[in-house]
C-alpha cells in the first residue's frame, strides 16, 4: 500500500464550494483535497456544514457554486454515464445505518450487488454474508431485520452495505456517535483495518476525539464557512484560532491526547 | 499505483469523456482501481493441473469463474494468480470458497503466484470468511399449525382484554376527574373537540348529503316500477336516520380520529414523552386519554345529527328533481311516516361508537415501540380495528333493537 507518501493521488478535489440555505451561508470558497488511501477526519462545530459537505460531495445536494471532482469525475457538470460509474466506486454510511427497514440485513447488503449484471443470486447472497462477516457481525445477523438490531450493529450493517462493491472511497457520517466507548473503539479498529487491507480512502465526519486520535491520518477543521486548517493532529495542536484551540486543547481533548500518549502530542504521520 | 497518478492529477480540467478514458487505462495492481475493460482468462498450464488466471477477477467475473471451473473435467490442483491484474474481495472470496470446498473433500488447492497486495487481501478475506450457521428451525406440520392457531386466538383474546382494560382505565380516570374537577384540563377538551368534531363537519356533511342523493336516486328507480314513488321518503328517512347516518359518520371519524389519536400518542411514546410524564407525576390516562375520548363522546352524536340532517336534505333535493316530490310534500310525508324513535335508535349508538373509536385509538398509540415502523403499523391497525369494531357493534345493535321491537 502506498500511503499518502511521495506523490499522493487526489481522489476528491473540492474547489470554491458554496452552499447556502436562504440567507444562511454554510460554505463559501471551501477548498479540500482528499488523497488516496488516507483516513481524513472532518471536524467542526454544530452548523458548520460537515454533513452538508458530505452530501455535496456525494451528489445528494447541489451546491450553489464551486467544483467537485471525485476520482476524476466532475460531480456537478459531468455527464450521467460517468456519474453512474461512481456509484460502484464509493460507498456511503449514514448516521444510523439508513438500512432499508423492509429488507433483512443480508438483502440490504445485496442491494448494491444487484446492479452487477449476471451475478449468480447464490453467489450474491454468499458475498453479502462475507461482507457481513467482514464488518464483524455474527452470521445469523444477516437474517435479522434492521429494527431487531442494536444501534452499533445497524451501523456495522450500514458499513457492510457501503462496502458491498469494494468501493475506493467510503464516506462515514458520525460512525461512532451513540456507541458506548467499547463499541466505538471496536468500530475505529474495524475502519482502520478495512482501510489498510482494502486500500480504502475514508472520508469521516466525526465529533469523536478518540476516533480522530486513533485512526485519522489527517484532520480538516471546518470553521468560518471553509476548511480553516487541515493537517496532522500535531498541526492542529499548534493552530491558535480560538475554536480550533478550544477543540484540541479543551478538557476532553487533553484527556484523550494525554492518556493515549503521555508526554507527547499524539500524532500520526 | 503511483505511476498513473500524474495523469490523473495533471488533467482535472479535462472534459469528462477524456477524463474517463485516462481513468480506464490506469494500470491497476491494487484492489481499488477503475472499471476494467479486460475480463477473466483461464488457461491450463501445459498439461499439468495448474490453472493460470489472468485479467481481472472481481465481482463482475466471479459467476463466470465458478461456471467455468464447474465445466472443467479435472479439477485443478493449483491456481496460478501471477497473471491477475485486478482482484477484489469478491474474487478473493471465490478462490477461498473453492479452497475451502476442496479442503472439505479432503484434497487441497494451492493458490500460487499471488502478489503482495493479493496475499494481503486473501488473508484479510480468509480471516473474515463466514462460518454458516443454521438458523433455528421453524416447526412445520400439524402441531405447529395448531400451535400458531392457538397462539393467535390467545393473542386475540388478550387484545380484547387489553382494550377492556383501557376502557376501564378511562372510566376510572373519568370518575376521578368528576370528583376533582379542578384537575381537568378544559383547554385540552375544547382543542380536541374542535379537532375531532368541528373540523370533521365538512367531510361528514358532504358524505351524508351524497348518501341521501344516492338513496333517493336508487330508491326512486326501484319504487317507480310499483308506482310507489312517494315511499322513497320513508326509504330515505329510515335508512339514514336508523343506520347510515351514524354508521358512516362513525366510519369516517374512525378513519380520521383513531389514526390521529394513535399517531399523536404513539409519537409521544416513541420520544419517551409518556415516560417523562410518569416521572413528573402526570398520569398519561388522565392527561391524554380522558380529554380525547370525552371530546369524541361529545362530538360524535353532534356529527351524527348533522349527518342525519344533511342526508335528509340530499334525499329531499334528489326526490324533488327526480320524482317531483316537492319539499313541503317531503316534509309532510316525513312527519307522517317516520317515527321519532328512528332518530333515537340511530343516535343512541353514537356514544358507543365514540368509546370504541377513542379507546382503540389510544390503546394502539400506547402499543407503539421505539421505531417509526411500529408507529405506521399501529396507526393503520388502529383504523382497521376501529372500523371493524364499529360495524360489529352496529350489527349487535340491529339484533338488539329487532329483539326489543324498536
UniProtKB/TrEMBL annotation, chain A:
Stated name of the protein: Methionine ABC transporter ATP-binding protein
One of the record's GO molecular function terms: ATP hydrolysis activity
Residue ranges constituting the ABC transporter domain according to the UniProt record: 12-249
Alphabetical list of InterPro entries matching this protein: AAA+_ATPase, ABC_transporter-like_ATP-bd, ABC_transporter-like_CS, P-loop_NTPase
UniProt keyword Cell division present: no
Keywords: ATP-binding, Nucleotide-binding, Transport
Pfam (any one): ABC_tran
From TrEMBL, chain B:
Entry-linked SUPFAM superfamilies: SpoIIaa-like
GO CC list: ATP-binding cassette (ABC) transporter complex
Listed transmembrane segments: 153-175, 196-217, 244-266, 287-320, 340-361, 382-404
Region (Disordered): 1-40
Pfam families, alphabetized: MlaE, STAS_2
Domain STAS: 38-129
Keyword Protein biosynthesis (UniProt): no
Superkingdom of this protein's organism: Bacteria
Keywords attached to this entry: Membrane, Transmembrane, Transmembrane helix
GO molecular function, one term: phospholipid transporter activity
Gene3D superfamilies xrefs: STAS domain
Function: Could be part of an ABC transporter complex.
Annotated NCBIfam families: MlaE family lipid ABC transporter permease subunit
Record protein name field: ABC-type transport system
Organism: Salipiger mucosus DSM 16094
